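thought: fold this chain, then report.
action: predict
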Amino acid sequence: MIFIDAAKGKYPFFLTHALRLLSNDGIILADNVLYKGYVMSDYNKHKQRTAVRSLREYLKEVSQNPILETQILEVGDGLAVSKKYQLK
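observation:
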């Protein structure tokens, strides 16, 4: 299991390394992926723009990656739970 709770602008970077390190059937937990609701809204305040853009990129990757099954839980600031599978 890998838990990501770090600089929001770096989540795609951490995902790349998590996938490299994680064994098949491993779990990635990513905290605060909805970032105060900004990620799912039209919010575009300059101060949070990089974090919001990076979190959107992270969610797109974990949702579309064929070796991951991902659920986004709308608890707190959002929690992404991704399970890694081996491609057949």
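thought: worth noting. The chain has a mean pLDDT of 90.
final: tokens above.
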